Amino acid sequence: MVEINGKRLLSDLHRLRDFGRTGDGVVRTSFSDIDMAAREWLRKRFADAGLAAAIDGVGNVFGTSPNPGPALVLGSHSDTQPRGGWLDGTLGVIYALEIARAFAEDPGTRDLAVDVVAWIDEEGTYTSCLGSQSFVGDLSDEVLEHANDGGETVAQAIARVGLTGVARAALDPGRHVGYLEAHIEQGPYLEELGDQIGVVTSIVGIRSTEVEFIGDQNHAGTTPMNRRRDAGVAMFEFAVRLRERFTAIAGPTTVWTIGQVRLEPGAASIIPGFAAAHVQYRDPEDERLAALEDALAGVAADVAAATGVEARVRRERDPILPCDMDAGFRRHIAAAAERIVPGGWREMPSAAGHDPMVISHHLPCAMVFIPSIGGVSHDFAEDSLEADIVVGCEVMAEAAASILRG
Ligand code: GLV
Ligand code: MN
Ligand code: MN
């Protein structure tokens, strides 16, 4: 069995947590100063592991093994949500680093090639899965114009951090045979069912729609109720009706979230003349997502008619299609899990998005999950048991070795 150094693994995870640490959580959104400092630390750490390491032209940290292929790419993202947990993404990056080190130390695995990556902006501060889009050659000029909440575009961020014109890591079909990522589950199932490992079968599709209501701004005291065109009223009516409509269409695992709303001008004594909401919905079936998207437009139109305000609906980003993990890789992971935690693993879909959503259309991908305590993630309280963290890395290392040995 590949010998993972659990102490070194945990120590590096904690060191990376220090970049942007806020209470128990981490604030390290992509292209922030602290994110770039963390990337520079990772670059050095990858180099110390014997990899040819560089921060590429979009901010990915990529470490190439000196061994000839076939190579597996292992990794995850090192950016976080605006108020993120310490393991979301980070876990998979440090696993990949530890596996590269463990392979190099063991004569039985020394010849195997693993390239290690810390993707940038999986979390979508500017555009989701930016780094992996670049790696597979999907990065369009249009995506480079996507902006963060402060209005800075991807292209401007790249220039600000001094990466304009720097070469970008690229999938090499003559070398790369697949991509493996480990991640915390971010949901409750493994913990509740008493399993230590999840072998991911598929990743849900995701669509996002922005809805705007345009009414009349006016005085909150002097405007009679029957003369108002209140964009805020329309927005709240929309949220309630959307829940009813989506519930009627939803499958067993459909989820939706209104995670961001804006009322303008946002003052207690002013009737809002403008309201906007971001609605995100996820499901394993793209047909259902299309039906939800149509229903959402219908609800917005109905609310506009009922409240006398104008409604505008637009897709925020291209739909992210549901995708399957590679069946052969899954068998390797399942076999490794059965050796290390007999009976303590299960196959399961991912309800969270991950870079394999992008990569799996170009390269076979698979994912390993470990339990999240209380199913909490995208929150400072996110955590996992140390024993689970170490076991997950052992399973991933065994699976990577057995895939590369063929
Ligand atoms: C990724 O972080 C997601 O929101 O699923
Ligand atoms: Mn996340
Ligand atoms: Mn993640």
Tell me about this structure.
With 406 residues, the chain is an alpha+beta fold. The protein has two domains: 6-204 and 322-405, Aminopeptidase (3-Layer(aba) Sandwich), CATH 3.40.630; 205-315, Alpha-Beta Plaits (2-Layer Sandwich). Helix content is 36%, strand content 24%. It has twelve helices and 17 strands. It has helices at 6-17, 33-48, 90-105, 130-135, 141-144, 154-160, 189-193, 231-249, 286-307, 327-340, 356-359, 386-405; strands at residues 21-22, 25-26, 52-55, 61-64, 71-77, 113-119, 176-184, 197-203, 205-214, 218-219, 255-264, 270-271, 274-283, 310-315, 323-324, 345-350, 365-370. Strands 3, 4, 5, 6, 7, 8, 15, 16 and 17 form a nine-stranded mixed β-sheet that branches. It has a four-stranded antiparallel β-sheet with strand order 11-13-9-14. Helix 3 (90-105) packs across helix 12 (386-405) and helix 8 packs antiparallel against helix 9. It is elongated and about 80 Å long. The two termini are 16 Å apart. The mean pLDDT is 97. One manganese (II) ion binds at residues 81, 88, 123, 378.
